[in-house]
């Protein structure tokens, strides 16, 4: 990876994809998301017929099957919005840091948000759902700054491996602190036990509506930063030479990413690896132009989390495997592959 503040050599800039290829892949991504959405509504611990699905979509809940479908709808919607937020957040983090290992989970951002929420509930008596989101975003921001500062120490600055190690250590420490806070408190232990793993099983329209304004702001900030992130990919010196305000761009894009992480973690817990897997796949399919890869990352992230939730519901019927476990099983081997790859320097 090229250190922050230095220009990248011309051969490090990856080949762009033709516009027709990008449009084609975006259409495919939309169709895949639609297919997983249908599967999420139709599949679960209880078998339902297509008739049950259609009648439940019309508002009927007179049978157990129809009631099951009605319950799956907000769960599916939450998986879509959280997956989109995490996918987009990971793509922006990788663009801001020019680090192919950047991910809200790996860098400890999600776990920082979790620790902030749990601490506020346990020690400050926080009960407001809206307060959860604000506290989670504050915790995510503090964690991101801390990890980047630690990873920047020493020779070479913030290299991918140093950031990954700092993030892993911070995440492990924060996870231990979360357990230390929750376990002695029987009044909150039950509420946060499953939430610590990361999942969308407790979805409701109220929870979705709670985070939508924050996600809207985060999506807008990140997507509007796409063109500037393209300039940052050339190196800070070249970006500054093109008239970009490098520090402001990096701070603004990072803020949008933190908002998405914090809001998602507040309602679904710390779900890792979505922000790592998705941007890599998107760059392969649509190229490195952030104007295309960012919206594609949002679509792909929504598809991945929705698919992971469906898998978690059907592999251990009638019990559910939380979506955070499924994404970890998928993402951990991929993370190891990226670390071992010689191309870890080239983003």
TrEMBL record:
The chain crosses the membrane at residues 23-43, 73-93, 105-126, 132-151, 163-184, 204-226, 247-272, 292-311, 323-340. CDD domains: TM_ABC_iron-siderophores_like. SUPFAM superfamilies: ABC transporter involved in vitamin B12 uptake, BtuC. It is found in: Cell membrane. InterPro entries: ABC_BtuC-like, ABC_transptr_permease_BtuC. Keywords: Cell membrane, Membrane, Transmembrane, Transmembrane helix, Transport. It is a multi-pass membrane protein. Belongs to the binding-protein-dependent transport system permease family. FecCD subfamily. This is Iron ABC transporter permease.
């Amino acid at each position: 990876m090229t250190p922050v503040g230095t220009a990248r050599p011309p051969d490090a800039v990856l080949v762009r994809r033709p516009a027709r290829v990008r449009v084609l892949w975006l259409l495919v991504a939309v169709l895949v998301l639609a297919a997983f959405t249908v599967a999420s509504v139709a599949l679960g611990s209880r078998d339902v017929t297509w008739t049950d699905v259609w009648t439940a979509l019309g508002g009927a809940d007179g049978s157990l099957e129809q009631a099951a479908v009605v319950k799956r709808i907000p769960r599916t919607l939450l998986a879509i919005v959280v997956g989109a937020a995490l996918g987009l957040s990971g793509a922006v983090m990788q663009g801001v840091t020019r680090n192919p290992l950047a991910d809200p989970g790996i860098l400890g951002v999600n776990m920082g948000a979790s620790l902030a929420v749990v601490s506020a509930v346990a020690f400050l008596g926080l009960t407001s759902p809206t307060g959860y989101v604000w506290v989670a975003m504050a915790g995510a921001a503090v964690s991101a700054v801390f990890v980047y500062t630690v990873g920047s120490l020493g020779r070479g600055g913030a290299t991918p491996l140093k950031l990954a190690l700092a993030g892993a250590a911070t995440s492990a420490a924060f996870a231990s602190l979360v357990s230390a806070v929750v376990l002695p408190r029987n009044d909150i232990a039950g509420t946060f036990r499953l939430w610590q793993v990361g999942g969308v099983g407790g979805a409701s329209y109220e929870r979705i509506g709670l985070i939508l304004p924050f996600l809207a702001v985060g999506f807008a900030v990140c997507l509007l930063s796409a063109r500037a992130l393209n300039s940052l990919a050339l190196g800070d010196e070249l970006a500054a030479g093109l008239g970009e305000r490098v520090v402001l761009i990096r701070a603004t894009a990072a803020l949008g990413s933190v908002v998405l992480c914090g809001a998602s973690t507040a309602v679904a817990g710390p779900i890792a690896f979505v922000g790592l897997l998705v941007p890599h796949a998107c760059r392969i399919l649509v190229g490195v132009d952030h104007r295309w890869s960012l919206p594609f990352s949002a679509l792909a992230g929504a598809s991945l989390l929705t698919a992971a939730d469906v898998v978690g519901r059907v592999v251990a019927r009638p019990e559910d495997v939380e979506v955070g476990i499924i994404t970890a099983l998928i993402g951990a081997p991929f993370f190891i592959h990226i670390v071992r790859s010689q191309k870890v320097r080239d983003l």
